Amino acid sequence: AYIPPLLLKEGLYKMDVDQDTWEDVQADVGDFPDGVLPQWLVDASVKKGIFMAQEVVNCEQELERCKVESSNLQTWFYMEYQVVKRLVKEADDEVSFFALHRLHQLYEWLELWRVNMIHVPTLSTAPSWDEFLPPPTLEHHASHIQVHAPNVDGDDDDAISSDDDQDGEVEEDIETEDLGFITLI
Question: Per the record, which residues fall in region Disordered (predicted)?
């Protein structure tokens, strides 16, 4: 077998172009078994083939990493979507409305990702992008909620005082009717 010359550390980084290290020394044919040079050393197409074979291996490894990442993204998204969807169904109307708004935001992301990731392979255990149904419209959900305007009669029974001073002075009176509130129809 051919053994290349030993590289000495001292003087290696001086970048002296006349140094033997930088010489492209042709090996003596007698240094190789049966006096035949290996193809990777003499044939440019074999050298290129080795490089291309390594590129194929690297691409296959990267494709596997992409599969796992895509599957993780789909699994995370599926779990997030299901939790928010359940919150929309089980929470009171005020919380449910905001959860539905979040569900719409998630569905918009889904539509963007579905288009851009259609050709990215996934693991067989990952949920499919096609499993997601569009959420109900916000307008449909909002029709079950009514915002009441404040009552303008002169009752002071529902006054709330802000009493932050130590001497007990009332800084302001706030009527609950002035705040408005949301109730079910």
Answer: 149-175
Query: How confident is the model over 75-90, as pLDDT tens digits?
Result: 999 999 999 999 988 8
Range of the domain at 180: 144-160+171-185
DSSP state of 17: T
Residue 184 has φ and ψ, to the nearest 5°, of -75, 155
Q: What whole-number distance in Å separates Cα of residue 151 and Cα of residue 160?
A: 15
Q: Is 152 domain-assigned?
A: yes
In angstroms, the Cα distances linking 17 to 9, 11, 111, 158, 179 are 16, 11, 59, 93, 84
Q: Which residue has the tokens 């969807």?
A: 85
Are the CB atoms for 146 and 183 separated by under 8 Å?
yes
